[in-house]
C-alpha cells in the first residue's frame, strides 16, 4: 500500500522528483529534507510499515519474547520478525571452509535499523576523516589517506541532524571540538552505571554520557534491539519519515522490494519493484539508494545490462567490495558483587583507547543487560531447537553465570579490504526472502589491534568479576556494516563522488553507510544522518532549481 492518497498503480504513473529506496537514517533524513523543500518524494520500503496506527506491530519487546511460540514454525517466526521491524533476509557467509546461513539482526521496515538502534548519535573525531595516518601498519588495506570531505564541512550538518533527532548528552572530554556542540543535557547516570563511572574516573580515565537521540519520557527504558512503544526513541521513522508524509506530502510504498534499476549509459530510467500489486516500474528524476550496505550493492550488482555488464555504476569493480562491520566484543562485569542489572542502561562512553600510543583502536560503551535466553532459543534453526531441548539446564547456567551484570561493548575499527565483500546469491529470492552472500576475513591489523585493545580493557576492569563474550570474529554481527559503495574523488578507486552521486550515473545517489571509506570506531548513525542532509542540499541546487 501507499501511505497517503495514492495506490501503487497510481504511484507508477507519477514522475517523482526523487525515489528513495530505503527508509533508514540515510533515506529517511534525505527524503524528509527534500519533501520539506517542496519536492515530490516517494519512499520505497521492502519491509512493513510500523508507523503509528498500523495493527499487529510488535513493540516494547523483541519478537522472541513477545511471541516465543512463533519460533516453532519458520513461517510464523519470519512473520513475527517482520512485524517487529526486523529483517527476514538470509545471508550466506562463504568466508570459511564451510558456508553458514543466518538472518542478520538488522532493521527492515519504516525507519530501517534506526527503529532498533540504541540511539547513540555521536560525531566522528576530526582525525577520523584522515584515517590512514591512524594505523601503524594497515597492510594491504584500501583505507584512504582522507575522506573526500572534512569534519569542518560536515560540522553544520552534524548540528542540523542533532537538532532533528533531539540528541542529548555530555561532551567527550577527550575531544576539544565537542566543547562547542552544546547538546541538551542527558539525565544523570543511573544507579547501575554510576559506580563504574566513579571507578573509571578514579583510574584517571574520561567516561561521559553518550549522546543519545532519546526524549527520556517517563518510564523510558532506552530500548535497544526492538521498536519503541512510547515516544522516547528518535529514529528515522518518527523524526523524518512520518513528518515527510503527514506534513510535506511525501508518499510511502511499503512491502515493496526494489529488484533492479533499469538504466542507459548515464541515467536511471526506471526502478523495477516487486509488491503485492505485482511488478512496478517507477520513474523519478533522481534515484537515491539507502537500503543498507548489504542490500544497496546487491541491487546495483543485480542491475546488470548491456550498458553495465558488471553491475550498475560498477565501472571501478568496487561495488560490494571494502565491506566493514566493526569488531564488537562484549564484556559483562559486576560493579557490585550482589548486583542484578536488568535494564538497558546504554549510557557510558569511553574513548581513552580510541587513539592510544600511536595506534587506533576504538570506543567502549555500556551496552545494558545480557539478552534473555529466549532470544537465543527462539527460532527455526537447529541451534535454537537444541537450546530448547536443554532449556532447564541451560537456563539455570545462563541465569547463574551470565545474568545480572552490566554489559560493556568494545567497538574496534576494522579496515577495508577488496576481498571483504557482498555478492549476489545463485538463488536471490527464496520463499519471498532475499538472499545474498558475504565474504569477510580478519587481517593482521584487526587481529593485533583487537588483541591489544581487549588486553588493555581487561586490565582496567581487573578488580571486577567479568565474563568476556568474544563476538568480534562472528560474521553474523553486521549491525554496523558499511563501506560497500565508497565515495571519493577518483572514479577508479571509488563508486561515488564527494556528493554521494555515482561517478558514472548522473541521477543516482547512495546515502546509507555504503559510502563510508573507513568504518571509524564509533556508531555510524549521526554521520549518516548529517551526510544525508548535506547531499539533499546539493541535490536541491543541482537537480531542482525551482
CATH top level of the domain at 1-50 and 85-169 and 224-326 and 417-440 and 479-545 is Alpha Beta
* Biggest pleated-sheet summary: 8 strands, mixed
Number of strands: 22
Distance between the first and last residues' Cα: 30 Å
Q: Kindly report the oligomeric state of this protein.
A: single chain
Form type: globular
Radius of gyration from the alpha-carbon trace, in angstroms = 22 Å
Percentage of helical residues? Answer: 10-25%
Summed up, the helix count is: 13
Q: Per CATH, which architecture of the domain at 1-50 and 85-169 and 224-326 and 417-440 and 479-545?
A: 3-Layer(bba) Sandwich
Question: Based on helices, strands and strand pairing, what is the structural class?
Answer: alpha+beta
Spell out the CATH superfamily of the domain at 1-50 and 85-169 and 224-326 and 417-440 and 479-545: FAD/NAD(P)-binding domain
- Roughly what fraction of the amino acids lie in strands? 15-25%
Would you tell me the overall average pLDDT? Answer: 92
Pfam family, one: GMC_oxred_N
Protein name: Glucose-methanol-choline oxidoreductase
Cofactor: FAD
GO molecular function: flavin adenine dinucleotide binding; oxidoreductase activity, acting on CH-OH group of donors
Write the layout of secondary structure elements.
Blueprint (H helix, E strand, L loop, with lengths): L1 E2 L4 H5 L2 E7 L3 H12 L4 E4 L18 H4 L7 H10 L6 E4 L6 E3 L48 H15 L1 E2 L25 H9 L5 E2 L2 E2 L22 H13 L2 E3 L3 E7 L4 E8 L2 E12 L5 H7 L25 E8 L13 E3 L4 E2 L2 E2 L1 E7 L4 H5 L4 H8 L1 H11 L4 E7 L8 E10 L2 E7 L4 H17 L4 E5 L38 E3 L14 H18 L4
Amino acid at each position: 500500500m501507499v501511505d497517503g492518497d495514492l495506490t501503487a498503480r497510481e504511484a507508477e504513473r507519477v514522475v517523482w522528483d526523487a525515489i528513495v529506496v530505503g527508509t533508514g537514517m540515510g533515506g529517511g533524513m534525505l527524503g524528509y529534507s527534500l519533501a520539506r523543500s517542496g519536492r515530490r518524494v516517494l519512499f520505497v520500503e521492502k519491509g512493513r510499515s510500523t508507523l503509528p496506527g498500523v495493527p499487529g506491530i510488535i513493540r516494547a519487546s523483541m519478537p522472541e519474547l513477545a511471541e516465543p511460540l512463533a519460533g516453532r514454525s519458520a513461517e510464523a517466526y519470519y512473520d513475527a520478525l517482520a512485524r517487529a521491524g526486523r529483517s527476514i533476509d538470509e545471508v550466506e557467509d562463504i568466508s570459511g571452509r564451510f558456508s553458514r546461513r543466518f538472518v542478520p539482526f538488522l532493521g527492515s521496515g519504516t525507519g530501517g535499523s534506526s527503529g532498533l538502534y540504541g540511539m547513540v548519535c555521536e560525531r566522528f573525531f576530526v582525525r577520523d576523516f584522515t584515517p590512514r595516518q591512524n594505523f601503524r601498519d594497515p597492510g594491504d588495506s584500501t583505507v584512504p589517506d582522507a575522506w573526500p570531505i572534512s569534519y569542518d564541512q560536515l560540522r553544520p550538518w552534524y548540528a542540523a541532524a542533532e537538532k532533528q533527532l533531539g540528541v542529548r548528552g555530555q561532551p567527550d572530554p577527550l575531544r576539544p571540538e565537542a566543547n562547542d556542540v552544546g547538546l541538551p543535557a542527558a539525565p544523570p547516570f543511573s544507579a547501575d552505571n554510576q559506580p563504574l563511572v566513579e571507578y573509571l574516573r578514579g583510574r584517571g580515565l574520561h567516561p561521559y554520557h553518550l549522546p543519545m537521540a532519546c526524549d527520556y519520557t517517563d518510564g523510558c527504558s532506552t530500548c535497544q534491539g526492538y521498536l519503541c512503544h512510547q515516544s522516547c526513541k528518535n529514529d528515522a521513522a518518527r523524526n523524518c519519515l512520518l513528518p515527510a508524509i503527514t506534513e510535506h506530502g511525501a508518499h510511502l510504498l511499503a512491502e515493496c522490494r526494489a529488484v533492479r534499476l533499469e538504466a542507459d549509459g548515464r541515467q536511471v530510467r526506471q526502478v523495477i519493484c516487486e509488491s503485492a500489486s505485482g511488478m512496478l516500474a517507477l520513474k523519478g528524476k533522481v534515484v537515491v539508494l539507502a537500503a543498507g550496505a548489504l542490500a544497496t550493492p546487491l541491487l546495483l550488482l543485480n542491475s546488470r545490462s548491456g550498458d553495465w555488464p558488471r553491475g550498475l555504476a560498477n565501472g571501478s569493480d568496487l561495488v560490494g567490495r571494502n565491506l566493514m562491520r566493526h569488531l564488537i566484543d562484549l564484556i559483562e562485569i559486576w560493579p557490585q558483587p550482589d548486583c542484578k542489572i536488568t535494564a538497558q542502561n546504554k549510557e557510558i562512553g569511553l574513548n581513552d583507547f580510541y587513539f592510544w600510543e600511536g595506534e587506533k583502536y576504538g570506543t567502549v560503551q555500556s551496552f545494558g543487560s545480557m539478552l534473555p535466553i529466549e532470544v537465543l532459543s527462539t527460532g527455526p534453526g537447529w541451534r535454537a531447537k537444541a537450546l530448547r531441548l536443554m532449556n532447564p539446564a541451560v537456563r539455570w547456567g545462563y541465569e547463574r553465570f551470565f545474568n545480572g551484570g552490566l554489559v560493556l561493548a568494545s567497538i574496534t575499527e576494522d579496515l577495508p579490504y577488496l576481498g571483504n565483500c557482498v555478492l549476489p546469491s545463485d538463488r536471490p529470492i527464496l520463499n519471498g526472502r532475499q538472499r545474498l552472500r558475504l565474504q569477510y576475513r580478519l587481517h593482521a591489523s584487526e587481529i593485533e589491534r583487537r588483541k591489544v585493545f581487549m588486553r588493555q580493557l581487561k586490565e582496567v576492569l581487573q578488580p571486577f568479576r567479568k565474563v568476556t563474550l568474544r563476538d568480534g570474529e562472528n560474521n553474523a554481527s553486521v549491525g554496523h556494516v558499511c563501506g560497500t559503495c565508497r565515495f571519493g574523488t577518483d572514479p577508479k578507486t571509488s563508486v561515488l563522488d564527494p556528493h554521494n552521486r555515482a561517478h558514472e550515473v548522473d541521477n543516482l545517489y547512495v546515502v546509507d553507510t555504503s559510502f563510508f571509506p573507513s568504518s571509524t570506531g564509533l556508531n555510524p548513525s549521526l554521520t549518516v544522518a548529517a551526510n544525508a542532509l548535506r547531499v539533499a542540499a546539493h541535490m536541491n541546487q543541482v537537480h531542482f532549481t525551482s
